[in-house]
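> forwarded from #structure-qc
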């Protein structure tokens, strides 16, 4: 085909000989050149030239084997493609070379060689017409040609459309191909498609050599059909995923349309564009307050300008993701019905009447006054008494989400308030994180273990909590990471702690403390049978028809295998029983399944399946849980003078504590052992001084009978369980009783336990934790408890059955204590009968 109207290429063209494939008109390729002739062409022609014409060069496929290429000019392939060098990049690594980006324009035939050095220059004849591709005239011309060519081009076009149909249109490259397919003149299709589909260089060379349009269509069509067939086969054998399809589309890198560079990277850009657009939509849809929205839009603007590879991109992205995820205005509606709440609380929890009453009051006020700025409830009590579980029930009664934030060991205020975004790895604090997790702005947050907050150089987390918990401030809580205020006023905070002693005073001030004391033996039995056993059965896939734990067994577990104020360890022991029984039941099941009518009678003799339900009695209990861990040691230990039983309070509940004393010849020294704090040591000195001062009254003597108990005598006081630190003044009366027993040689009653602080004048002062202490005494099987007179009011809080089981002696002075501690009273005391306020 001769050159017609259209654009003309220069008649003299510098020629670039390349081993790297075949440039077809309409495609763009990247060529690396390093041979001396080509290098000269680039440096002397392309880089020096100033006109557009000087950027047009002829590209001729070098058909000589690259291995044997020499400096002489090979026989030139007769047909080449004139191309325009779009980009030239030079580099000297690993050796000097240029990389050219060339877009093919049209075919030419080499008429004659003009020069060979420094680069090849030839007289050429343009073969293809170069029309403006925007006109459709050429396409119409081809179509109008009719006959074979028209048919062929139509066929080719349809095949190309079919190929596209098999590819995923959501891949941007494919979408572009589709767009261009219709706008390109039909005559250019063979070249364009051949450069895009998977073809060998030899085949491309055939297409290049096909000067007549008809021949070109004929050559390219089989290649296109082959690609379609290949795809069909692939689709049949492989379940196509968009990923695969992307791979199947064999767009050679650089095989692009004129003036339009196909680049797989563009696809990412498109994605990214979509991404930020989605993010922007989300930002607008997040319903955030004005200030937050402004910050987000600003960040979004920055994000759009940032390249993805920048580390800050990810930071900003994460920040925006969090901002849109936060429940700025998403909340549940409280569905509060006090009667239902009462039933739910009662169903979930046995006993704890006082706590439940206060919780109901709290909820009732909430119902009457929706915007409650009331105090934060703080449940204080030993572990395993149901603090967390009451919190969960409150959330359930209100129909709110429940989220627990464990504060134990938190010693950095950033944990609460977040890190500033300038830090690497910065993140929001637990409050904001919790809100993100529940995705609602009015959850119930349980701040667990507020008494175990730490302090460190990184600031005081308790101070950060102050802002969170203060109803006056928390409507504009500012997390360092977010840096905009978030309204926490809808969140219902509940705190739990084991003791109020270590809660920072400012924090304690914001909370209303509700004591949750430990349970009595009877309460535990009830809790076990109403809640723990059914729960554990369910968790282990057992039914009451398979396992039965009688009340006596539960009592046994409580007294011999656990010693705790709560029920957590009891729950674990029940779990252990369930596991053991589950094995038996499962074995039994397998047995019955394999049983067949013929062999059933034979097998029955050997091993009958366990009879259901399996009843756990004392023997079974010992078999599953091992020998008892705790025994009633009280009566055994008090068989010597110089031992008394005290009551102590720990964050884990009340405990009984033995105090032992012995004396030996010496110089009046006092030795104290058993990890004691200063207060305890002072109590011991106080006790000895008081006893020495009153030795005559009570006929106390030393070893040899002298009236000063310390004369020629050393005394050793020991508080067993030496690994546990003991401090606090409440052991005063116990030390006095223990020493009085030692000096008088009389035995302390083995069923008496006591607590109380003493003064030098022999008065007994009130102490704390009476309820837990009494419960501990009750657990240990004590019969009489001596408490300070001024603690009498605390007894009202005790369960009726405990009060009925125990004798309470309220003592105002040590005289009364001693009187009540010894069988038949203590010699020298004013009254021979203990003052009883028995069976309160
Ligand atoms: P805490 O938070 O006080 O350490 P939890 O709330 O975790 O204790 O309670 C431990 C387990 O004991 C839970 O399974 C809970 O259901 C159960 N529990 C505690 N007290 C009661 C109660 N009064 N009634 C029913 N179950 C209880």
């Amino acid at each position: 085909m001769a050159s017609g109207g259209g654009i003309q290429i220069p008649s003299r063209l510098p020629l670039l000989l390349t081993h790297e494939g075949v440039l077809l008109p309409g495609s763009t390729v990247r060529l690396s050149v390093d041979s001396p002739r080509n290098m000269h062409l680039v440096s002397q022609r392309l880089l020096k030239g100033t006109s557009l014409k000087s950027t047009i060069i002829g590209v001729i496929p070098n058909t000589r084997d690259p291995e044997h290429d020499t400096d002489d000019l090979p026989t030139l392939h007769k047909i080449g493609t004139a191309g325009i060098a779009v980009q030239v990049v030079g580099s000297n690594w690993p050796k000097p070379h240029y990389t050219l980006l060339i877009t093919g324009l049209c075919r030419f035939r080499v008429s004659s060689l003009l020069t060979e050095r420094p680069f090849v220059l030839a007289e050429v004849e343009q073969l293809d017409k170069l029309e403006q591709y925007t006109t459709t005239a050429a396409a119409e011309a081809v179509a109008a040609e009719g006959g074979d060519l028209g048919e062929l081009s139509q066929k080719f076009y349809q095949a190309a459309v079919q190929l596209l149909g098999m590819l995923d249109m959501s891949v941007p490259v494919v979408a572009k191909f589709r767009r261009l397919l219709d706008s390109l003149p039909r005559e250019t299709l063979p070249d364009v498609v051949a450069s895009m589909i998977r073809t060998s260089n030899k085949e491309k060379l055939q297409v290049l050599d096909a000067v007549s349009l008809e021949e070109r269509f004929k050559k390219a069509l089989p290649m296109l059909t082959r690609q379609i067939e290949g795809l069909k086969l692939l689709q049949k054998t492989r379940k196509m995923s968009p990923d695969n399809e992307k791979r199947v589309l064999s767009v050679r890198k650089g095989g692009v349309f004129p003036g339009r560079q196909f680049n797989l990277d563009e696809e990412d850009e498109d994605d990214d564009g979509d991404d930020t657009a989605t993010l922007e939509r989300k930002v607008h849809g997040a319903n955030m307050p004005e200030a937050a929205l402004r910050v987000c839009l600003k960040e979004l603007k920055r994000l759009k300008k940032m390249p993805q590879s920048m580390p800050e991109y990810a930071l900003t992205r994460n920040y925006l993701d969090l901002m849109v995820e936060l429940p700025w205005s998403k909340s549940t509606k409280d569905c509060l019905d006090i009667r239902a709440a009462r039933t739910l609380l009662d169903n979930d929890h046995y006993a704890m009447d006082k706590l439940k009453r206060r919780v109901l009051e709290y909820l009732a006020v909430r119902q009457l006054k929706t915007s409650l700025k009331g105090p934060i409830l703080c449940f204080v009590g030993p572990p395993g008494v149901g603090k967390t579980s009451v919190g969960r029930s409150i959330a359930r009664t209100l129909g709110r989400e429940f989220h627990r934030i464990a504060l134990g060991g938190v010693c950095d205020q950033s944990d609460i308030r977040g890190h500033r975004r300038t830090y690497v790895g910065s993140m929001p604090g637990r409050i904001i994180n919790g809100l993100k997790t529940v995705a609602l702005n009015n959850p119930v947050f349980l701040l667990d273990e507020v008494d175990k907050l730490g302090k460190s150089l990184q600031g005081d987390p308790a101070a950060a909590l102050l802002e969170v918990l203060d109803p006056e401030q928390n409507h504009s809580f500012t997390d360092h990471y977010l840096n905009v205020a978030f309204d926490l006023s809808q969140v219902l905070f509940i705190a739990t702690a084991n003791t109020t002693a270590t809660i920072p005073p400012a924090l304690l001030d914001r909370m209303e403390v509700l004591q949750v004391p430990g349970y009595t033996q009877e309460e535990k039995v009830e809790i076990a049978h109403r809640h723990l056993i059914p729960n554990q059965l369910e968790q282990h896939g057992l039914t009451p028809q398979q396992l039965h734990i009688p009340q006596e067994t539960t009592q046994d577990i409580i007294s011999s295998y656990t010693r705790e104020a709560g029920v957590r360890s009891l729950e674990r022991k029940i779990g252990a029983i369930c596991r053991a029984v589950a094995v038996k039941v499962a074995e039994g099941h397998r047995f019955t399944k394999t049983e067949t009518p013929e062999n059933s009678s034979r097998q029955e003799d050997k091993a009958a399946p366990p009879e259901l339900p399996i009843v756990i009695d004392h023997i079974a209990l010992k078999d599953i849980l091992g020998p008892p861990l705790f025994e009633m040691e009280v009566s055994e230990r008090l068989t010597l003078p110089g031992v008394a039983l005290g009551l102590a309070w720990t964050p884990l509940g009340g405990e009984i504590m033995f105090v032992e004393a012995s004396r030996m010849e010496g110089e009046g020294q006092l030795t104290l052992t058993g990890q004691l704090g200063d207060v305890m040591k002072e109590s011991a000195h106080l006790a000895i001084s008081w006893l020495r001062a009153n030795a005559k009254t009570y006929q106390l003597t030393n070893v040899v009978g002298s009236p000063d108990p310390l004369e020629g005598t050393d005394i050793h006081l020991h508080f067993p369980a030496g690994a546990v630190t003991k401090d606090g003044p409440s052991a005063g009366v116990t030390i006095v009783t223990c020493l009085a027993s030692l000096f008088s040689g009389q035995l302390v009653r083995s069923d008496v336990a006591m607590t109380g602080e003493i003064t030098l004048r022999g008065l007994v002062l009130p102490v704390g934790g009476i309820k837990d202490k009494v419960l501990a005494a009750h657990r240990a099987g004590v019969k009489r408890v001596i408490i300070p007179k001024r603690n009498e009011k605390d007894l009202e809080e005790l369960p009726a059955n405990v009060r009925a089981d125990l004798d309470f002696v309220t003592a105002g002075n040590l005289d009364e204590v001693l009187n009540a501690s010894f069988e038949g009273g203590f010699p020298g005391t004013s009254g021979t009968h203990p003052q009883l306020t028995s069976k309160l």
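QC bot note: The first helix runs from residue 36 to 46. The CA atoms of residues 269 and 275 lie 9 Å apart.
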